[in-house]
Structures are given as C-alpha cells and as structure tokens.
From TrEMBL:
Pfam family name, one: Exo_endo_phos
A molecular-function term among this protein's GO annotations: double-stranded DNA 3'-5' DNA exonuclease activity
Record organism: Streptomyces coryli
CDD domains membership: ExoIII-like_AP-endo
Protein family according to the UniProt entry: Belongs to the DNA repair enzymes AP/ExoA family.
GO BP terms in the entry: DNA repair
UniProt protein name: Exodeoxyribonuclease III
Site label Interaction with DNA substrate, positions: H260
Annotated site location: Transition state stabilizer: N153
Active-site residues annotated for this sequence: Y110, D151, H260
Co-factor: note: Probably binds two magnesium or manganese ions per subunit.
Key words of the record: Hydrolase, Magnesium, Manganese, Metal-binding
Keyword Magnesium: yes
UniProt biased composition (Basic and acidic residues): 241-251
Length: 269
C-alpha cells in the first residue's frame, strides 16, 4: 500500500485556499498535517476539502494558531491537544491534533515560536516540547507506523539556517531547543530527512521580507519524526519548494503562497 503523507504550515488556510486546494490536487497526498490555520472551527473550509476527498480533524483557535489532519484514508481516534499540554496565559492553545489515518497514526503540531531566549514564551516552548516527548514515547514503541509532523520552530543544526551568524543568541537555534529535539528522538523516533528539489539544504521556510525566497535565505524548521515502522516504510521524502514560489502578479490573493513549503514523505506499507 502506497501512502503519501505531508506536513504544511499554510499561514492562514482561507486567504490561501486556492493555493492549498491546487496543491492538494497536484501533489495528491493521502494524509496532510496542516498548521497555522488562523480560523475558527466554523470558518474552516470543510466542504471545499471534502470535495477533494478529505475528511478533516480540526483544532482551530481563531485568529492565531490552529492545526488539522486531512485524510483520504479515514479518521479514527482523534485526539485534541497533547495530553498534559501546557498552557500559556491561562489557555491551552490550538497547537496539536492527533488521528489514526488507515494504517498510520499521526500528530499535526505547531510548536510555539518562543519569541526570545529567556522570554516566558521560550520557557513555554520548552515545556511544550517536553509534553510532546512524553506523548511520543507512548506511541513510538508500538508496531503501528507513527509520526509527529509539523512546524517545530527549531532548526536542528547550524546548516539548517541560511546564515548561522545572523541567529546568534536567537530562538530556533538555541542549545535547549535543539536538545529538546534530540530528547524527542530518544523517545523512539527518527527524523525523516527530506531531499531538496533545489540548492543543498532542504529549507522549509523563507521570510516574505527582503526577497527571502528568491535569495534562498531560508530555515529548515518543518519536520517529520517517525518510529521504526514508519521510517522503514519511507521510500522518498522531499520539500516541495515550488509550492512556496510567489504567484503571478495578476494572480488572485487566494493564490498567494505561505511562507512555508510542504514536506512530503512517500511510504510503502
């Protein structure tokens, strides 16, 4: 059984709905983990996605955050929020949703940004990653293919940012954040490292400002971590950089790109 699984921070699903649905039709993934929906549950474009054959498990929080799992393989055992997920400013944010899609169990994750090293949001980020590690440890040892996918807001290595000198003392590259990813892997997960369709490093994010995409000033912060049954089934993985390419000047706003590109994994189960 061939299964294509992807993760994509869409940076607002409704403003970019034609870009999203166009990519779903061309790439034809079976399971998609989406992040940064930026909509309420009522605003989520359920009908448009259903027309393409997708069921959706959605954790939407309004103006910010929001995650979803889209599946053509069915949806079972949907879990909203990580068990033990920490709060920020007294609220559990819309950053995690898990679901079983046919033979595979996945989590769609939008890890907190952290803002600045030492900021309360940075501490929250580390606590959030620890909660994820604990959840992953429970599923990673099973025989069922299992993966956590999403925008981790962490670049694991120096080469995963376009110029490490520009990030001195910043979030996304700090030792504690990177250590949290190492601890996540110790729970029984390995990274599915994607190939790049262009350039050497498969960046997944480029800032809209200062021609970041055109100059390839990117970061690799969107990841797939799977257990042994999952990673053993991976036959290919890549970053679909073309999905990040700016649209034509006369294109409608709904065709504007996200600042992230999808990460895609092809499995043979």
């Amino acid at each position: 059984m061939s299964v294509r699984i992807a993760t994509w921070n869409v940076n607002g699903i409704n403003p970019r709905i034609d870009r999203v649905t166009g990519w779903l039709q061309s790439a034809a993934p079976d399971v998609v983990c989406l992040q940064e929906l930026k909509c309420t549950p009522e605003q989520f474009p359920q009908e448009k996605l259903a027309e393409l054959g997708y069921e959706a498990a959605v954790r939407a929080g309004g103006r910010w955050n929001g995650v979803a799992v889209l599946s053509k393989l069915g949806l079972e055992d949907v879990t909203i929020d990580l068990p033990g997920q920490p709060e920020f400013d007294g609220a559990v944010e819309a950053r995690a949703v898990g679901a079983t899609c046919g033979p595979v169990r996945v989590w769609s994750l939008y890890v907190p940004n952290g803002r600045e090293v030492g900021h309360a949001h940075y501490e929250y980020k580390l606590q959030w990653l620890e909660a994820l590690r604990q959840v992953a440890a429970e599923d990673a040892s099973g025989a069922r293919p299992f993966a956590v996918l999403g925008d981790f807001n962490v670049a694991p290595k120096d080469e995963d940012v376009w110029d490490i000198a520009k990030f001195d003392g910043a979030t996304h590259v700090s030792e504690l954040e990177r250590t949290a990813l190492i601890e996540l892997q110790k729970s029984g997960l390995d990274e599915v490292y994607p190939r790049a369709l262009k350039y050497d490093i498969p960046f997944t994010f480029w800032d809209y400002r200062m021609l970041g995409f055109q100059k390839n000033k990117g970061m690799r912060i969107d990841h797939i971590y799977g257990n042994a049954p999952f990673t053993a089934a991976v036959k290919d993985a890549y970053v679909d950089r073309e999905a990040r390419r700016p649209g034509k000047k006369d294109a409608p706003p709904s065709m504007a790109p996200s600042d992230h590109a999808p990460v895609v994994a092809d499995l043979e189960l």
